[in-house]
Design a protein that fits this description.
By secondary structure, the protein is mainly α. The protein has one domain. The protein is built from 3 helices and no strands. Helix 1 runs antiparallel to helix 2.
Length: about 90
């Protein structure tokens, strides 16, 4: 699996689902197909640039030791969902 920014599934081996950026890129491409033309191409390039910057920032924070693992994020959101379901939010 490859997105328009060139990121591929090898970086996500072991993930339970594709990374959010891949889903967002697919949504952006579908929306762009609905409005063809030069404006669409410009928007697609801008979105790809935005997405690449966002990934680079995320990678830099992980390399600096500021990130959290997927398991940590999943656990904190599972706890949050339990709180909301219990009416404690």
């Amino acid at each position: 699996m490859t997105t328009t920014s060139g990121w591929n599934a090898r970086a996500w081996i072991g993930a339970s689902r594709p990374p959010t950026c891949q889903g967002n890129a697919a949504l952006g491409r579908r929306a762009c197909r609905a409005q063809p033309g030069l404006e669409c191409a410009r928007q697609a390039r801008e979105y790809d640039d935005y997405l690449q910057r966002k990934v680079e920032v995320g990678r830099a924070s992980m390399h600096a030791g500021l990130g959290r693992s997927n398991d940590e994020v999943e656990a904190s959101f599972a706890a949050r969902r339990r709180q909301v379901a219990a009416g404690q939010a």
